[in-house]
Amino acid sequence: MLILIQLVLNPLTNDQLTNDKNLKIMPKIKLSENTIQIIKDACKQFDNKESELINVLHAVQGKLGYLPAEVQEIIASELNMSVAKIYGVVTFYSFFTMIPQGEFPISICMGTACYVRGAEQVLAELKRRLKIEVGQTTPDGKFSLSSLRCVGACGLAPVVMVGEKVYGRVSPQQIKEIIEEYQEEKAC
Amino acid sequence: METVNLTIDKKQLVVNKGITILEAAKGMGVQIPTLCHMKLDDLNIENRPGGCRVCVVEVEGRKNLAPACCTEVQDGMVINTHNMRVINARRTVVELILSDHPFDCLVCAKSGNCELQDMAHNLGIREIHYQGEQSTYREDTSPAIIRDVDKCIMCRRCEMMCNEVQTVGVLSAINRGFNSVVAPAFEMNLDHSVCTYCGQCVAVCPTGALTEVDETAKVIRALSDPEKTVIVQTAPAVRAALGEEFGMEPGTLVTGKLVSSLKRLGFDHVFDTDFAADLTIMEEGTELLGRLNKFLGGDKSVKLPILTSCCPAWVKFFEHQFSSLKDIPSTARSPQQMFGSIAKTYFADKLGIKRENLVVVSIMPCVAKKYERGRDEFKVNGNPDVDHVLTTRELAALIKLSNIDFNSLPNDDFDQPLGESTGAAVIFGTTGGVIEAAIRTAYEIQTGKELPRLDFEELRGMEGIRKATIDFNGLPVNIGIAHGLGNARKLLEDIQSGKSEFHAIEIMSCPGGCIGGGGQPYHHGNAEILKKRQKAIYLEDKNKTLRKSHENPYIKKLYEEFLGNPMSEKAHHLLHTEYFDRTK
Known about the structure:
- The complex is a heterodimer of chains A (188) and B (584).
- Chain A is an alpha+beta fold and 188 residues long.
- Chain A folds into two domains: 2-92, no CATH class; 104-187, Glutaredoxin (3-Layer(aba) Sandwich).
- In chain A, 48% of the residues lie in helices and 10% in strands.
- Chain A has helices at residues 2-9, 14-19, 33-45, 53-64, 69-79, 83-92, 112-116, 119-130, 175-187; strands at residues 104-109, 143-148, 160-162, 165-167.
- In chain A, strands 2-1-3-4 form a four-stranded mixed beta sheet, covered by helices on one side.
- The longest helix of chain A has 13 residues, at 33-45.
- Chain A starts with a helix and ends with a helix.
- Chain B is of the alpha/beta class.
- Chain B is 34% helix and 15% strand.
- Chain B has 18 helices and 22 strands.
- Chain B has helices at 21-27, 84-99, 115-122, 157-165, 200-204, 216-223, 255-265, 273-296, 312-321, 335-351, 368-372, 392-401, 423-426, 433-447, 485-496, 527-543, 553-563, 569-575; strands at 3-8, 11-16, 38-40, 45-47, 56-59, 66-67, 78-80, 140-141, 145-147, 172-174, 181-183, 210-212, 229-234, 269-272, 306-307, 358-364, 379-380, 383-384, 388-391, 465-472, 475-483, 504-508.
- The longest helix of chain B is centred in the middle third of the chain and has 24 residues, at 273-296.
């Protein structure tokens, strides 16, 4: 229970998940019938083949946004392979995540061009406003923060993306406005 | 067979095409060192990830050094296995591994048995030229196995045993780069996982990353407690392997010295798990015949084949992975638990002491027995039937620390009444032995006739899955044998799909059976050692006057005085058990 509460107050980062010195007990998630069907369909789309694991994981994460333990367990039983092997693949590739993404995933480019034009200050402001670190999700599930390398829009550096929408030449002062834009959206 | 000509260390040789440089070199007496590579011949077990790079050799004309374990020989190859360049590279590789390895050799459980330590010694490494970050990870302690991942060198042998050989699928390499470790899914602890505690990961780990839970201190404490009567039982496979810990040839039988050493250690009574193995046959054999005769009598509700239930790792395996079949295995407890149960009732009564004051210690070739003894159904008011379990290796350590010169010990005999056993019980220690022992007794009970022969060669060997039909005086009984849980899985899948033709199947988790158990002296990848132990077990059987369980006079007496008949209500209560669905 304590861990559950801590998790809500202080979401785990990927880094904490893999390097925690204490036994890690993940909060149990109850998957809906609908979600289970989505996972099973994704496996079936690739003929339930073990060799298609990475494609299956891509498809499922595309639908659900992340790959919690319970989801990996269903994939394991559908593909008839050990869940340890699946966890091995999920933790190997940085694209896969076990942390739920926010309703509005925020990515900030830390590529060379963005970096030299002040991305670091922009990131600091994002962290300060959202009160989360990179790899975390806000307790209300609204925003998650990730950093990436180059989105191919160096002319607009520094670049911030919220979902699919790209914001160019972002200054720390603009962050408040950008965040509010999405907070209001929920209020409507 | 096509051959190739090549030169290794200036010596020309002709070898079969398709083999590796490592194998070719071995054939001419050149031992190229390896760390991750391990091959158990005849058991189809090989770990060859080509990861550690310790076995690199120079192939003239190639730019880079080649790993000998995964480079095939080619015609005209000229190979140097120990020139300056090769030695430098090999030392560098080992120094780099050591730079991320704890420096606690002196107090490491694996000291003296560590392949990394040997490697550093053999390469003459006196200094480590690299300093850098050291990986750290929490220690994971389960009822049987300790994972100390800081000592892991990522050879992946354990992962291969767990996935390919045992198909248990608990261990996998996770994370990436410097953060990589071998761990269960979601980095849970072993005791939360579907680990069977078979201990084959421990048996092949080259370093101290995987070891058994050490209970020697608990045994020493019990032996020094004047309030307690401490008795000991020794499993059949221990006597065929313990000598190795004292420099004897593999396959040396040390039964007499084993008994002698246990008496010197101070055990009040030295008994034999083999006695309980004979008891197991009485119960399991009777159960087999009961089911078989009902089936032959036309009762289609009866569940066949019957599966043996002596192996705790196998029991945990089917509880996790084949729980729909949990009605099929015999309900007979394992010999270890039968012994504990009889000791704490029948024998405690004989001594006139309370069960709490009787301490039962087991010497087992197995780490899963440590887990088995802790199962709730084997406790009475919280007091376990078996108090402590030592592996063969731990017993050797205890003997050494007790100043006993094992090799010069005289032979001694087991105490009575729980020390008498037959040859049928001894062969419990090897794959095929339990079912052969069962047949020796079941045949005579079923047919009322004396067995025309006692040695069933068709049941013996090292093949992973073996089949034979035994003629029960006109009634053909189909027997299946599997060792290694991956082989067991194949037979279980056949049962699930209704394809199985067997009436009875013996399953042992470890390759080779208990002789290859996770608690035995380390074989370091030499399968010959297992074969020699197996030979010793059959020799011990041959040397016994009594070779059928039902002829054991003390077993007869136990039924007369205490249990009544096999499968009686009392026997059911004390000698049988139930299985649980552990799928969730």
